[in-house]
Specification:
The protein is α+β, with helices and mostly antiparallel strands and 149 residues long. The protein contains three helices and seven strands; from the N terminus they run ββαβββαβαβ.
Length: 149
Amino acid sequence: MKLAYEMTYLHPVIETTCIKLVPYISRYQEQYKDIYNACYHEMREALEIKPYDFIQDDTFFDAGMENIYLLIEQGEIIGSVALKGEEIDDLIVNPKCQGQGFGKQLLLWALQNIQTEKVMLHVAAWNERAVNLYKKCGFEITETIVIGD
């Protein structure tokens, strides 16, 4: 069975970060597309969600990019996160930068910058690494969702 979790954060933000993110910049479109697809391909394949590379063409970038924030160092995207109302979405870390603490820093940045007291996110149960990170940072599973079938 393919599952996802809705996770909720109801605590005051205690831990902070000093990283600086910038709103999405179109000159990073190809780099963003490559990193996004690389981050989600394995999960989408494991969960049999097609297309495995979600961003197929430039129409993905036609709307909704005003909610995307990028962590950029020396002209390269390190990671990204979307803030959509009370939801943190599409938190991704460039595969070559994973395991270096950037995911936690992006999550802390999102918690500091979201404009609501209740914060939620969704994560595939398959992504145990992300689930564990979110739990360590104070998120709790509030709902289990069956994906597909």
